[in-house]
């Protein structure tokens, strides 16, 4: 069957390998948006205060499960927020007991709620060595924070200045470069044959920096790492549709209320949980690679994390444009849903 004739697409149930669920009222409102379509997600630990210890991760998982509507089936895969005081023994215990799936590295000050992150990478070497020994992955927000480095170059510079030296020092550490946004990151992952993979977000496959800045400033397209020029977006699409096992979906769906985004110093983050699968189907269809969508959403991630792919399926069906809400209501305020800027013809039938 040629791609044009495909109107129904059955996929193994997808997983989201990078997700922000927040806490409290926000958690309650956004969790069903993900659990409706996704079986599992790697849950980011950048709460205030951050989820640092095994015990905090355990409590956070309990709060997530308590917020999950009874009819929904969803497994949160917890992460620990790496600080310079993180105890290697606590990390090893969390891994062994199945409390945490991965550890998250935020360079201090790189992004939303990253103040407790790492400044001196030598201080976290013992934790990283322990993780390498036990096969626990490190998820990395890959941007330098040096104010002298242009914001559009911060990912590429991070690869050269931080990631390459770190991988030399701890070569057996399994790393996921989160939410890659550049040709340089795609090339680096492709040129590396062991212990390195990358997540790609939905929005970075769709927007470039013009979407944020041309014709008026669009705070809802502002996220970190910031979207780059069009050539980089094209490189990300090429990586996502390639079927290369080292690239998989991490939506980085990052809800902030409209009042928090729409102000002189607005928060970074795009909220894509609601319409991600419809958006991705459009991107893959436009590239003539619908048949590679399942690898990106449902197969490559579990393979890298050493987990079985999901047995359950979701079906995508093509038809008249699907109307998603502009925003979802939360008791903290409205959260705007990502607008891809084009019609979405693929609806998800759970
Ligand atoms: N991506 C974002 O722009 N924001 C994320 C943090 C992150 O993933 O860097 C958030 O927590 O809001
Ligand atoms: Zn990040
Ligand atoms: Zn994120």
Provide structural commentary.
- The chain is of the alpha/beta class and 350 residues long.
- The chain has one domain: Metal-dependent hydrolases (TIM Barrel, Alpha-Beta Barrel), CATH 3.20.20.
- Helices cover 33% and strands 15% of the residues.
- It has 11 helices and 13 strands.
- The protein has helices at 24-35, 54-67, 88-96, 125-134, 154-169, 183-191, 209-213, 230-241, 258-261, 276-286, 293-305, and strands at residues 8-12, 15-19, 40-43, 75-81, 102-105, 138-140, 175-177, 196-200, 247-249, 313-318, 327-328, 335-336, 346-349.
- The protein has an 8-stranded parallel sheet. It has a 3-stranded antiparallel sheet with strand order 1-10-13, with helices on one face. It has a two-stranded antiparallel ribbon with strand order 11-12.
- The longest helix is centred in the middle third of the chain and has 16 residues, at 154-169.
- Residues 18, 20, 44, 252, 254 line the site of one zinc ion (ZN).
Radius of gyration over all CA atoms, rounded: 19 Å
Number of helices: 11
For the biggest β-sheet, the strand order reads: 2-3-4-5-6-7-8-9
Task: Please write the string of helix (H) and strand (E) elements.
Answer: EEHEHEHEHEHEHEHHEHHHEEEE
State the share of residues found in helices, binned by percent.
Answer: 25-40%
CATH architecture, by name, is: Alpha-Beta Barrel
CATH 4th-level superfamily:
Metal-dependent hydrolases
What is the average per-residue confidence, as pLDDT, rounded to a whole number? 97
Instruction: Please report the distance between the alpha carbons of the first and last residues.
Output: 24 Å
What compounds sit in this structure? N-carbamoyl-L-aspartate, zinc ion
Poorly predicted ranges: none
CATH topology: TIM Barrel
